[in-house]
């Protein structure tokens, strides 16, 4: 149901003899919750066990919440990975007789990962990398090579550790429910972590929809808001399907007010002129702690940057693993700047931005009363992150009382602050709040 609400702010005072630079009653929804300078979301990919046993306790000790994109197929109780499609033997016979081309590639690339060896999975991955990099002929040749080896019984298990398919990660849905109740976001990273760009429609939809359905079954519908397609894919075909399944994707979220700089981008976030800049950074094996801290400093040097950090391994386990001691120092560095930095999970920041962009505030000052009307277009059952409002008040106020005028009577005191535009009060309201009363506090 669309969001249709009115917010009345009645500020009962005598008309002041002088006005602030910003007229009394002028109301803004601040760019970031809490009227912070910038935002940061800490995200972790693959659901690696040390993310939960090492990184998460550090975050909890600092009262910081993160987003964990989990591979649902390796969690006990979930529907695991599988090939959806024609009989395997028919596909093998065709692969023995007909070279791979555009008409057979997606089906063969979908099946090969489920033929029983880690080398087969590696062929799927390498073919996906080639395809997304524009090397379609190379991708077709890799499929032909893989199937020739498979038909001759030469595909083998390798010694390589595949972090998105291993027996060490033993996180349960019960564990994830507890982490979710502690404020962390648990979200989808597909069923098996494939190269989505080289899956045919049936298998692409299974990876997206089955992961969502398992998360909904074990964690509830609220956990199905955001997702991350593996390997940071931005393939247009994948994005078209994925946006039908999930409201938000860390991969891509095109919006006229949002500039998206992915992890590979070398563009400076400060050079972007849109209302918001999602700036993705992710430490690799060569990234120093000082470089990571510089990302925070850059975020705070502007007022529109949302730093989205992407972590994988922790404590020598997982890709680009970061030591727990380093994470503690880094997360502490972030926490120490919380007065200017909004630290929140990916879904929370996304919802706030969309709520703000979809909401219109109109206000009127007359005879000592300020009335403001709030209208929006989003479903409050989904978009329920409190917005931060900043309302300018007449000079001379020292404090104000905020009271709910539509429900049970409750009051809270608001401090009056000042900036270059005058005196104001700042407060948080859920996007479906019907009305409030603000008076000068004696």
Automatic annotation (TrEMBL):
One Gene Ontology term of the molecular function aspect: hydrolase activity, acting on carbon-nitrogen (but not peptide) bonds
InterPro entries named among the record's database cross-references: Glyco_hydro/deAcase_b/a-brl, NODB_dom, Polysacch_Deacetylase
Signal peptide positions on this chain: 1-20
Residues of the NodB homology domain: 38-344
Domain of life: Bacteria
Annotated keywords: Signal
Gene3D superfamilies: Glycoside hydrolase/deacetylase
GO biological process: carbohydrate metabolic process
Alphabetical list of PANTHER family matching this protein: CHITOOLIGOSACCHARIDE DEACETYLASE, PTHR34216
Name by which UniProt lists this protein: Polysaccharide deacetylase
